[in-house]
């Protein structure tokens, strides 16, 4: 029986990146704080707070707020946020769920009466769930922060950027141009997020004076500055003017949820943490468990002994992820409303039974969810500090700019997370007033012997758990954080929602296409097609389907001091930077 063995000499002393992949970036090292995000100016905002004495949580919020200004095509105060925090003193991992609920008065019958059938369209304002990001920021600061810096100091870099203006980055400009029509159509307030009626081009300066005012309300009044008063009224006025049912009580009643993270220990050595449902992080844990059982049962060679990204290796990962998605797409919903068998889904017995469905020679023709009772348009960033704490943080509008609708005078778009509900009353993820939908955004952390090992994540709709698995296994193979991100990735067809093309907010068909980005050999793709995979190759901006990740790894210097090693995905505009 093959046994899984991690070669820690390779993990702790990875080969230089240039020996593995041609890259424009190398690993960033530091001994104090580290910030890795998809926008350089947002990274600098986090570093600014670290320099003032803030910890990883404080700096994560500063980075998050700044990303609202530097990358609004992916995130904003009109969306949601999730967080995992590693406390170096207690060696505990804590989780925060900052997702909002559907309006209390909204139900399936109301949607069906409007002529809709399978899901709420991404551009329909009934897809707007209560935005959770603002409350998540304040709760992150109050519960995980250092108390050495104020809310005003944490928000100050983003407010400065919003008022003085930011030059728009290349990849973000492309996303903005693609969404120009959506922003113009979604509300009468599109000019608040356009430059002279147009999406800004690379290098053009965008100012967000109304967003700065919204931030100042939160600084002055805390959560009430968003969920009550002027901003709340503007949100409700816009949604109700378009036939939506959200009211002021829905906003006033919003609360962040502090939850126990879920985890899976891979190879008896590396414990991976994810936020529990209603997030899809459990998908990554199920996949890791299935992969481990495939190897333990002798159904494949040990993964780390296979050639990286060989047909055999890719086939094994793809099939494990398909099995994992079959379960998560069915069972993941709001645990406050529906029972989710988390413990059973991650049990040894259940994972072993799912692994038996793996065929090393070809694809399983039709993967469906199991019965454990009986047996990504997002920004992710990572922050660590000089004390050894880590904050793995993610926020999103869901599909790009979300609905594209801007509450008057507020400077942000509203998310469309509610399009992830199913309009089938018998489905666990069925739409119901006051309920949270299946959520794609997921941060991750990994520990070894209770010590922090990785703070990481990969943004991008349903790609996210797939990215978590691929990047983690790359690191365990001995890749540097940068090489682990640079390596070519695949994405099974769960895909990413797209409001601009009017695609659904529901997950795709896991039994159909598998997308491979440039970097895989033609021979590899052809072998996978011969094994039954409907393999498609994508390039250029389409590679955005593969998500954009950040990784910070904790290493130990021979002197005994820890060293942060960080990588930032070249599929985005950002970078990692160290505090001095």
Describe this structure in words.
This protein has about 575 residues and is an alpha+beta fold. It is built from 19 helices and 19 strands. α13 packs across α16. The longest helix is centred in the middle third of the chain and has 21 residues, at about 310-330. The radius of gyration is 22 Å and the shape is globular. The model is unreliable at about 370-375 and about 500-505 (pLDDT under 50). InterPro entries: GGT-like_enzyme, GGT_lsub, GGT_ssub_C, Ntn_hydrolases_N.
What characteristics describe this protein?
580 residues, alpha+beta, 7-stranded antiparallel sheet, 19 helices, 19 strands, 17% strand, GGT_ssub_C, GGT-like_enzyme, Gamma-glutamyltranspeptidase, GGT_lsub
The helicity comes to: 25-40%
What structural category characterises the helix and strand content? alpha+beta
Number of helices: 19
Arithmetic mean of pLDDT: 90
Number of strands: 19
- Biggest sheet strand order reads 1-18-17-13-12-9-8
Overall outline: globular
Low-confidence stretches: 371-376, 499-507
Main sheet summary: 7 strands, antiparallel
Question: Strand content of the residues, in percent?
Answer: 15-25%
Rounded to the nearest angstrom, the distance between the terminal CA atoms is: 49 Å
Pfam family, one: G_glu_transpept
Organism: Gymnopilus junonius (Spectacular rustgill mushroom)
Protein name: Gamma-glutamyltranspeptidase
């Amino acid at each position: 029986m093959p046994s899984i063995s991690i070669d820690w000499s390779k993990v702790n002393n990875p080969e230089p990146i240039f020996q593995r992949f041609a890259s424009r970036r190398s690993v960033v090292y530091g001994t104090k704080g580290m910030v890795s995000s998809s926008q350089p100016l947002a990274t600098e905002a986090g570093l600014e707070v670290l320099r003032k004495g803030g910890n990883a949580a404080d700096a994560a919020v500063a980075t998050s707020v700044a990303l609202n200004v530097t990358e609004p095509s992916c995130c904003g105060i009109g969306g949601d946020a999730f967080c995992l925090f590693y406390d170096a003193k207690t060696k505990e991992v804590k989780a925060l769920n900052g997702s909002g609920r559907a309006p209390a008065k909204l139900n399936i019958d109301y949607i069906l009466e409007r002529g809709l059938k399978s899901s709420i369209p991404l551009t329909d304002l009934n897809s707007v769930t209560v935005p959770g990001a603002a409350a998540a920021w304040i709760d992150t600061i109050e519960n995980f922060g250092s108390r050495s810096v104020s809310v005003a100091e944490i928000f100050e870099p983003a407010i400065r950027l919003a008022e003085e203006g930011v030059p728009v980055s290349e990849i973000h400009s492309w996303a903005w141009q693609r969404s120009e029509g959506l922003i113009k159509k979604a509300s009468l307030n599109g000019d608040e997020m356009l430059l002279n009626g147009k999406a800004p081009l690379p290098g053009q300066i965008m100012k967000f004076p109304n967003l700065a005012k919204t931030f100042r309300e939160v600084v002055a009044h805390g959560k009430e500055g968003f969920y009550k008063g002027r901003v709340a009224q503007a949100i409700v006025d816009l949604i109700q003017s378009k036939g939506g049912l959200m009211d002021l009580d829905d906003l006033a009643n919003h609360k962040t949820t502090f939850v126990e993270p879920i985890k899976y220990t891979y190879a008896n050595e590396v414990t991976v943490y994810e936020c529990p449902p209603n997030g899809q992080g459990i998908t990554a844990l199920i996949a890791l468990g299935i992969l481990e059982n495939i190897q333990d049962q002798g159904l494949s060679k040990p993964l780390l002994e296979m050639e990286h990204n060989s047909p055999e290796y890719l086939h094994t990962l793809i099939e494990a992820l398909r099995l994992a998605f079959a379960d998560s797409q069915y069972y993941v919903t709001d645990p406050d409303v529906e029972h989710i068998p988390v413990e059973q889904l991650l049990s040894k017995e259940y994972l072993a039974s799912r692994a038996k469905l793996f065929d090393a020679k070809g694809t399983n023709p039709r993967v469906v969810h199991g019965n454990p009772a009986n047996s990504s348009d997002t920004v992710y960033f990572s922050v660590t500090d000089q004390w050894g704490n880590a904050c793995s943080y993610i926020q999103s509008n869901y599909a790009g700019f979300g609905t594209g609708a801007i509450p008057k005078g507020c400077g942000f778009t509203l998310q469309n997370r509610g399009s992830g509900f199913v309009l089938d009353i018998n489905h666990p993820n069925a739409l119901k007033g006051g309920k949270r939908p299946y959520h794609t955004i997921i941060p991750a952390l990994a520990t070894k012997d209770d010590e922090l090992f990785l703070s990481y994540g990969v943004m991008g709709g349903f790609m996210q758990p797939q990215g978590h698995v691929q990047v983690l296994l790359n690191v365990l193979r001995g890749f540097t954080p940068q090489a682990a991100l640079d390596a070519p990735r695949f994405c099974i067809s769960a895909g990413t929602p797209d409001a601009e093309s009017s695609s659904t907010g529901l997950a795709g068909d896991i039994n159909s296409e598998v997308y491979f980005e440039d970097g895989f050999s033609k021979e590899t793709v052809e072998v996978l097609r011969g094994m039954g995979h409907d393999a498609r190759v994508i390039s250029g901006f389409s590679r955005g389907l593969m998500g954009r990740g950040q990784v910070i790894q904790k290493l130990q210097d021979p002197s005994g001091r820890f060293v942060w090693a960080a990588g930032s995905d070249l599929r985005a505009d950002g970078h990692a930077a160290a505090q001095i």
